[in-house]
Amino acid sequence: MKTTKAAAVSFTGAVKTFGEVRAVAGLDLEIAAGETVALLGRNGAGKSTSLSLLLGLDEPDEGHVELFGTAPQDAVRAGWVGAMLQEGRAVPRVTVAELVSFVAGRYPHPMDVREALRLAGIEELAGRRVDKLSGGQTQRVRFAVALAGSPALLVLDEPTAALDVEARHAFWASMRAYARRGHTVLFSTHYLEEADANADRIVVIDHGRVVADGSGDELRRAGGGSLVSFDLAGRGTAGLELLPGVTSVEVRGDRARLRTEDSDAAVLALAAQSLVRNLEVKTASLDDAFMALTAAPGASADLDELDDPDPLERV
Ligand SMILES: Nc1ncnc2c1ncn2[C@@H]1O[C@H](COP(=O)(O)OP(=O)(O)OP(=O)(O)O)[C@@H](O)[C@H]1O
């Protein structure tokens, strides 16, 4: 039964196992109605499986998943949910407008078809056959299909994966416009900057459970702290892990980098040991924080990768 108080999305101890693999391993997550939430995680972290549970495409082995206080299948059947998934075969021989109209017709309070095409940026494709489109065009048709029912909850699995830069900007502008109307949006992505710019909240999952949940700034603080780099000039690394606030020590060639929660105290301690050659202090990026939050215990990060991230910070 739908109540105004119920969360839009609620995972309680959800588990989904495939043979030996615990794809979702005790997921607890609540998303309030009206929130826009990004789901981040490395390849295989469990994002798509979590979205399948949420959409009622799969059942959890343990725990519960609810949408608006009811079972996912019931919420989907009631027309409260629209989804854009990574896969899905194109329907042959129908036009874009026919497909979007067909989907809209299955919802109780659909969006005007032209409005859905406009929001997805594909008005000019209305008369084109859906099985004759490019990858990016197909992706935007999927977005129009997800919007067609004017759903209270919009679920988007890697929505910008095949889009060029201009299409990405247009997509996020439309997504935000839709969210501003009071709808709940949950999207998964590998693009940290896109998550930071377009979500109220970022949920990081790793090995099938939530490892961080907050705004981009909160994640930077939780996972990153500050990075203090300097030349070792032949000196060893013994004792560096004991300096104030230091949570990790990485060494590449003759250069060391400390991740620390107290960069001022760490720098003073380094100065006392005359270890301030080519000293550099910077706040961790969201990319750094993400890698720290999802790194396997004992894994060492590649300094080149951290110092020269992809402009879009894809993870
Ligand atoms: N149907 C399935 N059968 C067997 N294993 C599966 C199945 N679906 C997912 N898995 C495994 O479960 C784990 C989680 O996969 P999932 O697709 O949910 O991750 P993801 O975070 O969406 O990854 P990506 O970013 O690569 O899309 C992986 O180890 C994957 O190989």
TrEMBL record:
Record's subcellular location: Cell membrane
Keyword field contains ATP-binding: yes
Xref: PROSITE patterns: ABC_TRANSPORTER_2
Alphabetical keyword list: Antibiotic resistance, ATP-binding, Nucleotide-binding, Transport
SUPFAM superfamilies per record: P-loop containing nucleoside triphosphate hydrolases
Matches recorded under Pfam families: ABC_tran
Residue span, ABC transporter domain: 9-232
Membrane topology label: Peripheral membrane protein
Major localization listed first in the record, in broad terms: membrane
Keyword Oxidoreductase attached: no
An annotated Gene Ontology molecular function: ATP binding
Domain of life: Bacteria
PANTHER family linked to this entry: ABC TRANSPORTER ATP-BINDING PROTEIN
Protein name per UniProt: ABC transporter ATP-binding protein
Organism: Streptomyces endophyticus
Organism lineage string: Bacteria, Bacillati, Actinomycetota, Actinomycetes, Kitasatosporales
